[in-house]
Hints:
This protein is an alpha/beta fold.
Amino acid sequence: MRTPRAIRVFLTVAGLACAPAWSSFAQPTDASDKPTDTIFNEIRLDDNGVVAVDTAGYNWYYDFERELFVLGIPEPDETAPDERLIDDGDVPIEQRCTEEIWIKPFETRPVTIGYDEFVDDDVTVLGRVTVKGWVTGDVESLNRRVLVTETGRVDGDIQAPKVVVREGGIVGGDIVEKASPLDIDLRAPFSVAGIVVVASFTAFLLISGVLMVIVAPRYVGNFCVCFESCKVKTFFLGFLFWLLLPPLIVLVAVTIVGIPLTPLVPLAYFLTAVMGMVAFGNMIGRSFARRFLGGERSRLFQTTVGILLVMSLWFVSAILLGSSGATAEGFGVFFLVIAILLTAFPVSSGVGAAFLTRFGVRKYLDWKDRAKSAAEPPPPAPPPIRPEQFPTSPPDSVSGVDET
């Protein structure tokens, strides 16, 4: 049984650190190309074709289509007829297939519908499908071939990267052979331009966050409190200011002293967007620390972790968009959309929070807090001290002490 390539990719990325240990304890079951340092102890010709055994005891077979040795055991010949003799060939399939089975959706293991079995539903799996009995619905394999033997019947459509229908097999619908949507080749070369851009911007955000937290902690604190407590207000206020950016630049440029100051307007917007990313990173990092580290950490640590988590989406999209495969580019567009939507919030909210706090100079109080503070009476003043309360003579000496 071979694991689908998409599952192998996921397991490789998720458990990269455990991969060497696993490979040392278990023989791989997926097909992989012959390494250059592999030495064969035996090469023989048998029913499976040209088979070899290496010094580690692993089995290999020669793939004549790819013209190389492949690790594992070859699949049975899909074009050869079934050796099983069918004595009751004239029996209708409705009478022959009397045992109903259920196939788990997106099954990764090879699926076989036996000679006397039937599936009264669609079959959608990741692995191979062999139909010797009857399927009343559609059959789809996302990553492997579908084989309909001479005793098999499929009433619906068949979709797979490869479809084989032996003589005598019945397919009532259409046969569509299409490339696997899970076939992502991470070994394909990708452009480094996107990686360099994302890495540069990430480094700039990290340096900016460190400088802001260290140099102006009070301003950053006021900014972060407003950013997190008024998320909706800061976002829509910042979005409004972004819409007013072009007329604001024109308004500053038409004044007498405004032409030299015109570049300062987009610079101020850029700085507020950076402050928004820093505040957003602090919020994400604090949530991460609470969930995985057992409690909050310093603002500098939380900001650094949050910025790295947000920018990781940009790294993934840059890698996938630079790959040569169409499937990888599709996933790259998906991650790019998520990264843009996730980044648009702090970029817009940063402008709104900067306006409400005057770049963090003052604390922001909404109208509820202001009304509450105005309604509370001032604390009572202490009563005045009258002159007669002050002592006019020195205190008496302590009893029991000889004054002489």
